[in-house]
Amino acid sequence: MQQFFTKLIQLSQLLPKWYICFMYIPKDFELKDQELVLKFLEQHAFGTLTVNGSDGFPEAVHIPFTGEFEEAKKFLEFHVAKPNTIVQAISAMKTGKIIVTGAHGYISSSVYTHVNVPTYNYEAVHVSGGIEELNPQELKNHLTKLVDTFEYSREDKVRMSQWPTEMIDAYMQEIVGYRIEIQHLEAAFKLSQNRNETDFNRILDDLNTRNTNDQQLAEAMKQAKCPIK
Questions:
Q1: How far is the C-alpha of 125 from the C-alpha of 121, rounded, in Å?
Q2: What share of the chain in percent tops pLDDT 70?
Q3: How far is the C-alpha of 32 from the C-alpha of 125, rounded, in Å?
Q4: Is the peptide bond before 26 cis (omega within 30 degrees of 0)?
Q5: Residue 215: per-residue pLDDT
Q6: pLDDT reported for residue 14
Q7: Per residue in 171-184, is it b (16+ CB within 10 Å) or e — as a string?
Q8: Helix H segments across the chain?
Q9: In this structure, are residues 195 and 163 in contact, taking their beta carbons and an 8 Å threshold?
Q10: Could you say which residues of the chain have pLDDT below 70?
């Protein structure tokens, strides 16, 4: 038995690091439609990048990102401050995982038509793959797209082209831009798809009487429908 586990560890070391850490997703809650998952990433452009550190603990940083999904290779782009220790981890590992979450909230079993325990609903996507550094022009393109994306719905929009070149160049010296190729995409949308229609609708009614976050969860559940297909 000891030899078996030793061999297993040796084999795992030959795999890309991100292949070792899959997300557990019950069948009822797995979203396999890649187009829907990519749309979710466009709508939730903020996540947590994790990279294995040299001390065995994961490095983590919270980042807004932009996406490129039209090419054969799909990827996300982001940037971090140069002093952040995750820069060294990225340089050493060349792989990482971005975790993106959406609507989430507590589901009370008091609304069920039968006795059961409470639960928690959520939307979560994991993007894993190789990471490469952006060159200065690619970084500038990323920053331009990032600003344009978040300014899109504002009436008085700002543009990078409005700012002094010297100021932009100075800021760019303080950050490092990266591209993570989407080599492995996992999506867990736990939205009560496993409930019967009556209980599903009672959960919606309950969420809509609560706060804005719960109402957003109710809207996400409506889109997921019951049961999952």
A1: 14
A2: 90
A3: 11
A4: no
A5: 96
A6: 43
A7: eeeebbbbbbbbbb
A8: 2-12, 34-43, 86-93, 136-151, 165-172, 197-207, 212-224
A9: no
A10: 1-21, 227-229
